[in-house]
Amino acid sequence: MKIKDKSFYRLNAFSNTFFRYPVSILFFLFLSLYVIRGNRLNYYSFHQGPIWAFTIGGVLTAVSQTLYEKLYLGKQFARIILHLIAILFTLAYYYFFLRHYPDFSWFIMMRFDALLAASIVAFIWIPTIKKSSLSFDLAFTVAFKSFFSSLLYSVILVIGFFIIFGTYTFLIAELDYVIFADLATIIFCLFAPICFLSYVPDYNLSEGNVSDQPDGPLTVPKLLRFLVSYIIIPLLTVYTLILMLYIVPNLAGEFWIDNLLEPLLISYAVIGFLTLFISHTFDTLSTKYFKSIFPKVFLVIASFQTLASIIKTQEVGLTPGRYYVILFGVFSIISSLLYSFSIRKKYLVPVLFIVLTTLSSIPPIDAVTVGLNSQIRSVESVLEKNNMLENDRVISNKNISTEDQKKIIEGLRYIEDYDALDRISWLPEDFAYYGDQFETVFGFDRFQSQYDEPSTVDGALNPPYTSLQLNTNRSTPLDISSSNQLVIIPFSYDQYVQPIIQTTPLQIEDISYNLLVTVEEDNFQIDLTTNRDENIISHNLSFMLEENYKFYDTIQDLPLTDLTFTEENDQAITTVIIENIEILDKESYSGSLYLLIDLKD
Q1: Contacts of residue 67, Cβ cutoff 8 Å, sequence gap at least 6
Q2: Which helix (H) or strand (E) holds 127?
Q3: Helix (H), strand (E) at residue 574
Q4: Using one digit for the tens of pLDDT, what is the confidence trace for 506-531?
Q5: Least CB-packed of 4, 142, 247, 535 within 10 Å?
Q6: DSSP 441-453
Q7: Are 248 and 240 within 8 A, CB to CB?
């Protein structure tokens, strides 16, 4: 296709999008205007619910248009009814699930992500139904190509406009910074969806007609063929081999306990199936082997990991995250079976995805509801075991085992993360997980052993953590009359940053000195020297980083006496008062301190 003809074709396709998807474009226009309005508001006064509603509405009306083009083409009344159904569903979604949550919430995001994923797959799948010669693999590849083409154009436009307006601001007159956010909003919330939809062909015209043209809408770009065949598939093969090398030797024990593979399963499944769908649209040597071997290998990985996640659920309860791991595991197992042993029925794969993902967002079987109920039951069972529940209220008990304390702490933390503590009837009405009530209600400090061992819910390894600060709840007199100088010193060490010695020049009684602060992995020291680098006094604080330090691996406010340290020699006395310090094992430490210097005559 010549450049001139291709340009006219793209322009015509872009303009036709306004006639094919007018309601979707209206939704995306409302989305853009609403976000632009939000750019000028305080974050806490901006209701985020309409953003998710407009996005879902835009996608659902695009799905209804695709359904019209496939099953009811030419019947305008059917088109109107389908759009009305999509609009009514969007209104119901906002009314029942969004309007009560003005701020960011995991409730909202997990349900939104599930509905969005199901809607997008439905948008791709519908043209392949009803004895169509168009396969889902090809329809998916067209959508994949459309997405990245529109993304590329959008990014280039944003960069270009930012450079233009940035140059104008630099050379001529200053512009309000909000205009940059508005430009990005218009491009990503309005132009990008329209551009994507313009790349999606009317399959009634394209199917069997232009698919053989070199630059037709149903062709697979050569670059994509090359990337999939010679880069993505080899990398995915090596990655799969690493997973198998981990699974096979550990099947006798550790695999079922540590669950290291669980966080990787969903991303691995998504990348694997994306590659599988695209590889079915062309034949190269690598894609032939990949299509033949990957489903069977992935069937083994998904089966073992899904079983391991189910076993872990029996131990610590079901979380929303683990719900999706198991759900994707079930999807992966069934899909792998279809691709391995019944390739003619692979058309069921998108149907299965749509059904499972939609069910995961509908109460009372959605991920959040099921996961939270499981965590609440898990906490209740621990409380009942320790006789801490009576007449629907908590009886404090500081003598329960550390393991049970951790289960209660982690379970309530998960429930708090999803803003669902109000679902628990036996908690006080004004209970706040991050407040001071925790120890009063349960009888033990929620920080007491939070960092001792791996988390009991998500299995994440938490290294020893220390956080000490000076108790400022009461006035404390500090005598500095005998000191020549008071210095406030901030300090910070990170294992990924090259440590440096912080040097501060001092002037005491018209004599110049240097204060050197060394912060290294095992060395925390303050030195006072003359201008000739002659050491006057050294104050070593490295003991605070060691495991045998009495406050190591604790989180607490301490009185002045516990955070005051003195060093003396025949030339000077230095007194260090730690204002605050945070230590994360050997990885990092930071804080601030007061240094009092008293030079002897």
Answers
A1: 82, 126
A2: none
A3: strand 572-584
A4: 888 888 999 999 998 889 999 999 98
A5: 4
A6: HHSS-TTTTTTTS
A7: no
